[in-house]
Design goal:
The protein has eleven helices and no strands. It has about 200 residues and is mainly alpha-helical. The protein folds into two domains: about 60 residues, no CATH class; about 140 residues, Tetracycline Repressor, domain 2 (Orthogonal Bundle), CATH 1.10.357.
Length: about 200
């Protein structure tokens, strides 16, 4: 199955901070935010219901947001990225490996604690894993890109040394972490964030 398109008109429009994002509106940005709110309420993201809420045709909604998997993928990554950026902002006192690990721990803990994500994994396990942990969904690639950027920041500041390139290491960390947080959630065991963090520390040593 081919990977999803990286960006849709709705996703691009929603990144504009000047756009009206608080109310449901019949705009691409409003469509993205309405879909995101539906997901955060723990509801199944229903394209028919979303089109009705926005008072647009489903053809218009699909033109703005892509099909359901594309919108879900964008929503999932937007939430993960928001948590990642918040974790970065919360740890200005750290540098190098200590900063990467502090951000990693907070980011992963917040993902594990996110109730809407838990509901999605429980109710639509196959789709959730496909979107979250494969190239198809675009969540994985974007998460790798965020982490690689963080590693490059610390490399550029001279605070971190790596035995490989940042992109490959970021990919290895993300793939390993997926096993700890998503597999454990699906089988009903508590995800072990500290165990994952200890593996990341070894990779950064």
């Amino acid at each position: 199955m081919a990977a999803l398109l990286e960006e849709t008109p709705a996703f691009r429009a929603a990144q504009d901070r000047d756009a009206e994002l608080t109310l449901t509106r019949a705009t691409p940005a409003g469509a993205f935010r309405a879909g995101r709110r539906m997901f955060l309420r723990g509801e199944r993201l229903d394209m028919r219901a979303l089109a009705a809420e926005l008072r647009v045709s489903r053809a218009t909604l699909y033109r703005w947001c892509g099909h359901r998997d594309q919108l879900l993928s964008d929503v999932l990554w937007s939430l993960s990225h928001q948590l990642f950026e918040q974790a970065k902002a919360d740890h200005p006192e750290h540098t190098g490996a200590a900063r990467v690990l502090a951000i990693f721990r907070q980011h992963v803990r917040e993902i594990v604690a996110a109730r809407p994500l838990q509901v999605f994994l429980q109710q639509e396990t196959h789709s959730a894993l496909r979107l979250l942990t494969s190239e198809y969904g675009r969540v994985q690639a974007r998460t790798v890109r965020d982490l690689a950027s963080l590693l490059d920041e610390e490399l550029g500041a001279g605070a971190l040394k790596l035995r490989g390139d940042a992109g490959s290491l970021a990919y290895a960390i993300v793939r390993m972490t997926e096993g700890f947080i998503y597999h454990d959630t699906v089988v009903g065991t508590e995800p072990d964030v500290e165990r994952a963090a200890s593996m990341v520390a070894l990779l950064l040593a």
